[in-house]
UniProtKB/TrEMBL annotation:
Domain ABC transporter: 9-244
GO MF term set: ATP binding; ATP hydrolysis activity
Regions annotated as coiled coil: none
Keywords: ATP-binding, Cell membrane, Ion transport, Iron, Iron transport, Membrane, Nucleotide-binding, Transport
Taxon lineage: Bacteria, Bacillati, Actinomycetota, Actinomycetes, Streptosporangiales
Protein name: ABC transporter
SUPFAM superfamilies noted in UniProt: P-loop containing nucleoside triphosphate hydrolases
Organism: Nocardiopsis kunsanensis
Cellular location(s): Cell membrane
Top-level taxon in the UniProt lineage: Bacteria
CDD domains linked: ABC_Iron-Siderophores_B12_Hemin (cd03214)
A Pfam entry, by short name: ABC_tran
Length: 267
């Protein structure tokens, strides 16, 4: 008999798709408590589709997603939302909503008929606005913000949800490079405080710098899974991304850094 799993989230023979066409094929993986897992891979490889299934947005064609050992499909929506928060890649902006009212929505999962608005809600919202540097935008309509400001507001909503698991689909979209690193450092701090973080990222250097574990996908399957230095290799990057490169240690962190080969310039 196999040992019981300690996984917070697990995929069991998970096949996902749209209509009759599978995009993710029979994936098995486990996310242990306190990991900062980053999923990487080329466009169309199924990484966002997989993340949305872990967040109960995509329904499996076959297989299961387990949260703390229980099938996600058997859990009540609010109960799941108190344990797991998902930031989608392109969230829809509600009309007329201010930053604060958006962030307040992150608290709805904690409300019941007997427990409505509380000081704990106010504290969670204030902390989320502070952590994302959006407190001065609290009364500004979301639709009037720049793409980067809007993205930080959505992150604040997810943080206000105050869950043990964060699922982040391209969380640095629309952000300039300074805010990208600010946000990734924030997620790293949350991870060090005990949060389980799973993110989809495009930038291999950022993924390797912040992740404790990398999952590389290609063609709807997991092709590598391990520590960043085990996954980001010149052979794998060449095979999966079609990029001839060298992989060297980052001079500041020692994490893998991809250096593309220079194409000869036509004379």
């Amino acid at each position: 008999m196999s040992a019981p799993s300690n996984a917070v989230l697990a995929a069991r023979s998970l096949t996902l798709g749209y209509g009759a066409d599978p995009v993710v094929h029979g994936v098995d993986l486990e996310i242990d408590p306190g990991e900062f897992t980053v999923v990487v891979g080329p466009n169309g490889c199924g990484k966002s589709t997989l993340l949305k299934a872990l967040g109960r947005v995509n329904r499996p064609m076959s297989g299961q997603v387990m949260l703390h050992g229980r099938d996600l499909r058997t859990r009540r929506t609010k109960a799941v939302a108190r344990e797991l928060a998902l930031l989608p890649q392109s969230p829809v902006v509600p009309d007329g909503v201010t930053v604060r009212s958006l962030v307040e929505r992150g608290r709805f999962a904690h409300h019941t008929l007997l427990r409505q608005w509380s000081p704990e809600d106010e504290q969670a919202i204030a902390e989320a606005l502070d952590l994302t540097a959006t407190a001065d935008l609290a009364e500004v309509p979301l639709a009037s913000l720049s793409g980067g400001q809007r993205q930080r507001a959505w992150v604040a909503m997810v943080l206000a949800q105050d869950t043990g698991v964060l699922l982040l689909d391209e969380p640095t979209t629309y952000l300039d490079i300074a805010h990208q690193y600010d946000l990734l450092q924030l997620f790293a701090r949350l991870h060090r405080r005990g949060r389980t973080v799973v993110a989809v990222l495009h930038d291999l250097a950022q993924a390797a710098r912040f992740a404790t574990r990398l999952i590389m996908m290609d063609g709807g399957r997991v092709v590598a899974d391990g520590a960043p230095h085990e996954v980001v290799t010149s052979d794998l990057v060449g095979e999966v991304f079609g990029l001839a490169c060298d992989v060297v240690p980052d001079p500041r962190t020692g994490t893998p850094l991809v250096i593309p080969h220079e194409e000869p310039v036509a004379g």
